Amino acid sequence: NLRCFYCHQEGEASGGHIEVAPEEIQRIVGVAASFGVTKVKLTGGEPLLRSDILGIVRGIKSVPGISEVSMTTNGTLLGNLAKSLREAGLTRVNMSLDTLEPETYRFITGTNALESVVAGIKDALKAGLSPVKINMVVLKGVNDDQIWNMIDFAKKNDAILQLIELESAVEDDLYRGYHSDLAGMENELRRRAEKIRVRRMHHRRKYLLPGGVEVE
């Protein structure tokens, strides 16, 4: 339900699609759990567009061996669902948010949904979803001057900020126009960090900054 120019350039096909039933999703997760999978993340597209999302979460959480159900969402629809999702068994969320500037948000996503996303972050925290991670794709000339504002926002809202470098399988016009090398920002984070940890997944670094804010 967004049109982020860096990942959804093809638009959305209308009509004729078939959704996988909640029971089938639960069955697939059951097979995965039998091989030792313990955590499931729902992504998309936008998972909250599913009218049966609460049943999907509830079904996955009921599978023996599944200890955690998480979700990646753009947050536009999260506000009214956060409490119910938590009760259904959702543990945590990753929220896509590249900017706090309304005009920049509109340029990136093609919508005016920024207020809904910010409200969704606050509602997620209030509902007890933890941690709440904010995914920020850094884009040259668009939002690369807003990183510290996003860090302050994460700090005030007890969230974790994940900085994502724009990548492409080929060096196309999108990559050449908007790729922002994060090496300089990493050096500054390293300089300011009170502690640095390395995640097993992708060997990603977590910078713990003064005031308790975490940037990954």
What does the model show?
The protein is of the alpha/beta class and 216 residues long. Helices cover 36% and strands 18% of the residues. It is built from 8 helices and 8 strands. It has helices at 22-34, 53-61, 82-88, 102-109, 114-127, 147-156, 173-178, 183-192; strands at 39-42, 68-73, 92-96, 132-138, 160-165, 195-198, 205-208, 214-215. The chain has an 8-stranded mixed β-sheet. The two termini are 27 Å apart. The model has no long low-confidence stretch (mean pLDDT 93).
The largest beta-sheet arranges its strands as 1-2-3-4-5-8-7-6
Order of helices and strands: HEHEHEHHEHEHHEEE
**Form type:** globular
The description of the largest β-sheet is:
8 strands, mixed
So how many helices?
8
Distance between the termini: 27 Å
What would the average pLDDT be, to the nearest integer? 93
- C-alpha Rg (nearest Å): 18 Å
Low-pLDDT stretches: none
Find the structural class using helix and strand composition.
Answer: alpha/beta
Number of strands: 8
Helix fraction by DSSP (H/I, runs of at least 4): 25-40%
Measured by DSSP, the beta-strand proportion falls in 15-25%
